[in-house]
Amino acid sequence: MSSLDIPSLRRAGAVCRSWRAAHNAFCLPALERAPCLFYACEEYGPNDAALYCPATGATFRVPFPGPPHERRGFTFACHGGWLFTTDEAGDPYLLNPVTGAQATLPPVKTIYQNDEFYDDGGKHVWSADPENGIMKPSISWARHLVFLRVAISTTADVTECTVLIVHNPKWRLSFARPGDDRWTLVSQDGGYIDNVLYNDKDGLFYILYANGSIGTLNLCEPSPSVTMIMRSVLPSLGYHTMYPVIGPSGELLQVWRDWSHIDTLLKYRARDRR
């Protein structure tokens, strides 16, 4: 069994009682209950990834279908063991690395103001601008720049979940469900959002802004909009990262990670050729 990948190992555990006992020896049940670290590495090649379970110390090799890692967008972890990732063109989808199941989401070009910016391959070419010191064209890829934050609701069937994204331009909010044709914009007003969170206790999404204010979003309403529940607590953006967290008793917490910008000397300096 040790040579099987996780989806095959899951199926093997359903054969009989003795195979189930062997399946449990691999600590797979812990993957559904404890947080895990999902990462790519050279050892597993371009089409597989590693899934590390801190609770057991076990590392599993799991299939990661899609383009090679260097041509894939950012991957976000979500509720229920699902990952939000993209293909080479930047079109997103949900992936369960344990079962191998996938769910399709609307294309990136259906997100507000992205339809004319990127071509069908998810590429935008910036022209040279010698007057501003830009001497040659450059390329932006949708898979790297569009998706900034992701939260997903918890449902028994992934096709019924709701995916909320913070995206460019201007850190806007949009949502969609697997099988939808387009992303739905929550508001055209931009605002710097530090993070988003889904609370399965009350079925609401929580939006944490960079100034410390918090809003809630009920995507079960016919015309959803953000309702502010906490005012700003920071005078400026500053150097910190903020996370909304649901505490053990169900209370909503803000976790701040402060950091300082430190000037460091460059090892190599450009030579003055004048």
Automatic annotation (TrEMBL):
It comes from Triticum aestivum (Wheat). Residues 56-261 form the KIB1-4 beta-propeller domain. SUPFAM superfamilies: YVTN repeat-like/Quinoprotein amine dehydrogenase. It comes from the Eukaryota. This is KIB1-4 beta-propeller domain-containing protein. InterPro entries: KIB1-4_b-propeller, Quino_amine_DH_bsu. Pfam families: Beta-prop_KIB1-4 (PF03478).
